[in-house]
Each structure stands twice: as structure tokens, then as C-alpha cells.
Amino acid sequence: MSGSEPPVVLIVEDEPDVAETYKLWLQDEYEVRMAESGSTALEMLDETVDVVLLDRMMPGLSGDEVLGRIRDSDSDCRVAMVTAVEPDFDILEMGFDSYLTKPIRSDELHDTVSNLLERSTYDDLLQEYYSLVEKQATLEATKSHAELAESEEYRELTERVDELDDDLSETLGGVEDDEDFIATLRELSNGDEH
């Protein structure tokens, strides 16, 4: 990301009306590119792309497959899954940075892109921490206490978050706004209830 150029957001969405809406919401602050399929998105992905808004359910290459290829590439972009699919424990294996459940609002999309751009300046440890905390908050907002208690994957996630929190406490003096961050994520995850 260069200082004077606006950040580049790549919208990967097979529904043209939805993609156009996201573009209208973001185009005043960002350079917005659009791809209607996973294969087109991969062709458009280069070192200038800062954030990818990736639909999870698309014909052809699914968002999950595109995400895997992005993470296997040299790209250092942040990826938000934007989907109507209710999150399940399978998200723990996915390399996204943020998970938005449709329908989303303009302010939610702006906040997500802004947060991802800020997080792209963090080191790898802090990026992993925030990605895992976001997954934890997403699951906590959509799963019952019983489901969480029964999940080995969730227990391992919680242990890893605690481990990273301890590591960051030693190196950064702690993540000061951890509770605020989690509360904000829960609020975004439950945004339709406002």
C-alpha cells in the first residue's frame, strides 16, 4: 500500500447487484475492483490488492477454494468472507481474516475494510491473534454454550487464543483493547438484531 494511492479492495461476488452495492458503498474511499467468479478473482489478484471481500458460495470455484489459493500464493492481502452461510466449526480451518454474514450494512462493510487495512500493518503474531479472536467471537455469537462445550476444535481455538494473548503480553505489554475488540466483533456478528 503506497502512501498516496487509495487502498485496493477486490469484491468477489457472483450477484451483480450485490457487488455493485458494495462498490457504491466503498468507492469514495477505495479503489474498487470487481470479479464475478473465483477464477476471475485469481486472475485479478496481484500485489496491489489490499483487501478481498470474498463470497463463500459461488458457482465454479467456491469462495473456500479461492481463499485456499490466495493463502497459497504470495499475496499478502487481508480476506473477509462475505456470505449467507451460517458459520460452523469448519471456519476454524479457513484462512480468512474476517467473516461477515449477509445481509450486511454499509457501516459494517466500511468498518471491516478499515480494520483489515489497519491489521495488515501488524506483525504475523498479532494478525494470527486477531484472526483467531474473530473466529472465536463469530462462533460464540452463533453457537450455543452446549455446542461450544462439546467442540474439541473450539477448545483448541480458545487455548491458542490464550497462548497468543500470553505471548503478546510479553512482547507488547498486552493487547489493551482485547475485551472491546471482542465486544465489537460480537456486536457486528449480531448486527441484524439492532
UniProtKB/TrEMBL annotation:
Tell me where the signal peptide lies.
none
Response regulatory domain: from which residue to which, for each copy? 8-117
The record's CDD domains line, in alphabetical order, gives: REC_OmpR
Keyword Phosphoprotein applies = yes
Q: Name one Pfam family in it.
A: HalX
Q: Which SMART domains match?
A: REC (SM00448)
- Organism superkingdom: Archaea
Q: Which UniProt keywords apply?
A: Phosphoprotein
Is the keyword Phosphoprotein in the record?
yes
What's the protein name?
Answer: HalX-type transcriptional regulator
